[in-house]
Amino acid sequence: MSPDPSTSWSSCAYCRCRFPTTDITQWIDGPGGTPLCPRCGVDTVMPGAKTDAELEQQHVHGFGGLTLLLNALRSAHVPVDGYGLGLLEVATSLEITPCSTIVVLVGGHQIEVVVDPPGRDTEYWRIRVPTKVCVRHGDADPGRAASRIDDAGVAHALRSAGFALALASAPVHAGPEGYRAIWEHRARDARSTASAIKSISDLETTVVSEPDDGFWRSMGDLRSMRELADRLADLGTAKVTPWALTLRAADGRELAVIDSEGHGTLKVCLVLAAGSGAKAARRRSESVLAWFDREAAHTWREHGFTHARRCGVAVVLHGGEHRWAVVIDLSFDVDDCVEAKLRWARDHGIVAFPLSA
Questions:
Q1: Count of CB atoms situated within 10 Å of the CB of 108
Q2: Which residue of 80, 103, 175, 256 has the lowest C-beta tally within 10 Å?
Q3: CA angle, 333 as apex, 330 and 339 as ends, to 5°?
Q4: How does pLDDT run across 96-147, given as a tens digit for each residue?
Q5: Domain 66-219: which topology?
Q6: How far apart are CA 128 and CA 294, in angstroms?
Q7: Rg over CA atoms, the chain
Q8: In this structure, which CATH number among 3.30.1460, 1.20.120, 3.90.930, 3.30.450 belongs to the domain 222-352?
């Protein structure tokens, strides 16, 4: 939706910033089309200077809230060993819900804290901690499960952190070595959620969880992604999100995206002649890709980039002026030579498409 031209300020639901409407310089399908945020480049611009609470609500509804939560955890100095997106299945209540998982260290063990962001019908964040209370071998009486969990040291620690045993998730038998239970806490926003998770990571008691029991998720190694971002810092601006690492060159163009599984996508811009517009760029996309496959792809393959495919069109800075370009995606592997690959790609990633082609 285009912002009202009469509104002097606009806001972005993705990066949650506010800016003068006159700062908008790029649109999808040209001026009057869908505006792009001048800060992050995402098409989630809204008219007016929204409040922090309104921006958080819009971001959570549109993007799930995991980015907000990870940023809040970083501000709260909570060491996060990993994260995930997926579904939590609570066997005792036949409940399957979308969630995020945050991996923190508690008492020397990795614990998966499950977080449900606010939905359309709820205004709070729900934090759940699956735990397992160990018992002596041969002393696993299901009838005494509730009292055993209630008396365990972890129960007292979680209560002091504001958690309660979830009523919908009664203790269940977890084999001959213990019982499993789910503890729950509700928070009003991402900052309060991060504070609750910090209270868990600060516990001195040992919490034994069941990380593979009842979960389906796609885990990302946040620590490794941040280490990679540090390695690539001299190539441009590296931004880590819950889904990928995005690298932007100094001129602001997106250079590469690396997902949490280590698969990379490079962006190559083939710049069209001065005066070409968005429609011309889209119309010529197929012929530009064919020219690239025929004349240039072999050079990129020699540097570790393969599988050229058309991505779209974009405006890039070339020769001191903004020009329309056809963007081509190339695949690459993240290995020990990734810095050298991307350094070469940064210096050769803008290609002038010949007028005679």
A1: 7
A2: 175
A3: 95
A4: 445 567 777 665 666 778 788 887 667 788 888 876 665 554 444 555 555 6
A5: Yope Regulator; Chain: A, (3.30.1460)
A6: 55
A7: 25
A8: 3.30.1460
